[in-house]
Amino acid sequence: MHPMLNIAIRAARNAGKVILRAYEDNDKIEVTQKGSNDLVTNVDKDAETVIRDTILKSYPEHSIVGEEHGLIEGKDTDYQWIIDPLDGTTNFIKGIPHFAVSIALKVKGRLDQAVVYDPIRGELFTASRGQGAQLNSKRIRVNKAADLSGTVLATGFPFKQKHHMEAYLAAFNALFIHTADIRRAGSAALDLAYVAAGRVDGFFEIGLKPWDTAAGQLLIKEAGGLVVDFAGGNNFDNSGNIICGAPKVTQAIVKELRPHLTDSLLR
Ligand code: IPD
Ligand code: CA
Ligand code: CA
To answer: Which amino acids bring their CB within 6 angstroms of ligand 1?
Structure first.
């Protein structure tokens, strides 16, 4: 195993312990509001600190960008870690056992290592560039459906940007009719990991952040899938608008969504 993946796993497991301890003793969870429908807890912040400390102990010169503590620029900017310490905070606060730690490493701007860890189920999704993707050390692959019929997709609602709801619902309607069903489980990092594992056939969401998707993107690529923006291009890191799945499923989703999206979403 790549030594940096090993450290990413250690960091994710350490954060998972902090998260589970708080989940089981939820009196100690302090919730504050970051933005519109955007909540954060002391646990998100503590988990990010634990991840950051674990990484910097082994790689003190690396750079880290985390959702809660922002950028720590190290001497070595070629190595950048991208962290979502707790993806699915709303589930966590509500006591819904579906959330994850997401950790990715970019080397010279290219995704190199990825971990998505579900501490409730003990499921560890990992990938190293060029080495495939694994769930608890077993190889995973995207589900290669030829078209949308019979597929189960995952999505996230634009709950922080409700002005997109009209376009989202029009696009959802057009797509839903062709699928078997669509899930909204509440953790984009796990949605992406589930696509990589073939548990769902594809995923789409508006306005995600780099820490939501960095690890998941590498998992999907290494599992044989494709990640695109809403116009079928590569601008998803900037726009946060993402579609993924097996290549044919991804293209079929783009085709159904596209006519219903506003120009601002087609970037
Ligand atoms: C959120 C979750 C959710 C998605 C949101 C994300 P957070 O992350 O991934 O599923 O719909 O867009 O922001 O805030 O829980 O880390
Ligand atoms: Ca997130
Ligand atoms: Ca988060």
So the answer is: 84, 87-90, 156, 186-188, 205, 208, 212
The reported pLDDT for the residue numbered 35 is 86
* Closest to 129 measured CA to CA, from 103, 107, 156: 107
Closest CA relative to residue 140, chosen from 2, 15, 246, 3: 246
- Output the six-digit token pair for 107: 């080397």
Regarding pTM above 0.85, the answer is: yes
Q: Which of 195, 208, 213, 217 to mutate to test the pocket of ligand 1 (most atoms within 8 A of CB)?
A: 208
pLDDT tens profile 126-165: 999 999 999 999 999 999 899 999 999 999 999 988 988 9
Q: Side-chain half-sphere of 202: how many Cα atoms within 13 Å?
A: 31
Nearest CA to ligand 1 atom 16: 87
